[in-house]
Specification:
With 363 residues, the chain is α+β, with helices and mostly antiparallel strands. It folds into 2 domains: 5-223, Orthogonal Bundle (Endonuclease III, domain 1); 239-362, Nucleoside Triphosphate Pyrophosphohydrolase, CATH 3.90.79. It is built from 15 helices and 7 strands. The strands form 2 sheets. The protein has a 4-stranded mixed sheet with strand order 4-1-6-5, sandwiched between helices. A 3-stranded antiparallel sheet has the order 3-2-7, with no helix packed on it. Strand 5 and strand 6 (315-326) form a beta hairpin. It starts with a helix and ends with a helix.
Amino acid sequence: MNYNVTDILQSFEEDEFQKDLINWFKDEQRILPWRENKDPYRVWVSEIMLQQTRVDTVIPYFNNFVEKYPTIDALADAPQEEVLKAWEGLGYYSRARNLQSAVKDVAENYGGVVPDQPREIAKLKGVGPYTAGAILSIAYGVPEPAVDGNVMRVLSRVLGIWEDIAKPSTRKIFEELIREIISTNDPSSFNQGLMELGAIICTPKSPSCLLCPVQSHCRAFQEGSQEELPIKSKKKAPRPVPIAVAVLQDEQGRYLIRKRPEEGLLAGLWEFVNLELTDGGLKEHQLTEYVSREYGVKASIKDEISTFTHVFSHIKWYLTVYKGTVDGMKETETVRFVKESELEQFAFPVAHQKIVKEVKKGD
């Protein structure tokens, strides 16, 4: 179906929609720490943290992060490993690295002030159209669209858009629509109102239509199609990846950990020795052969201590964890032996945080 913005908005009462949405948001908005003021840095941090993460989960991380790094300069000057540790548990660590990189750019090239122009803010690493629109509208009152899944769901229903919201071309339709209907007087409350509506009223399943402040404007409600919209194609199932992990100790009882490469999945985080398994062969044998091949030392793999899964957007790890010992291995910048009490000083991916808990529980 070809959608024309003018046709979609024909007979749509933009002014009344704005008024109903903004008044509702001002009366009913949740009290959230990043709404205490309109500091563009705080808005920026919150929007990066909130991507694919629930609000309740983000709140303590946000409070801790802005307490540690209250300003652009504080985050720009912080050691990256310390920043990753503060981010630990949120996942998507590339976002933390990109945020710090962009903040350094702001500190060095913009006098420590987040740009308030669309072209300039779009140059910052990790700042896509949604994040740029959120910062510009919320912090600076610039009428820019901030289109995420919540917003597309709301407007799919309100405006009766039967297009697959998983397609980039559909996102463009919504950006055009918002440019037409956004409040130029209060773009901050307008965009936040759409986000809030999607979060607490116009939910993916069983939307609370009877409580909706813009129900009278909603075409899906009038047609009874609110449960059918938005249209969203299913993602491919994540590829299964079997992983064997070795929790190895030296003769002093210290644990062997290593740092992941600075590029790629979970870049720069610490982990226990592990490998992706091949078909055939015992997991324990594959681990000992891997340690011998990779580090030139012999490992003794003993008991299995746990099995669990960890899901990424594109792969699903099936982890089997063993304990064991290793002798004669030398430390480097990326390979360390640490005491159990020191493990918490390092930033681990979520899967390996679970293993750290298993290690401590076992003792």
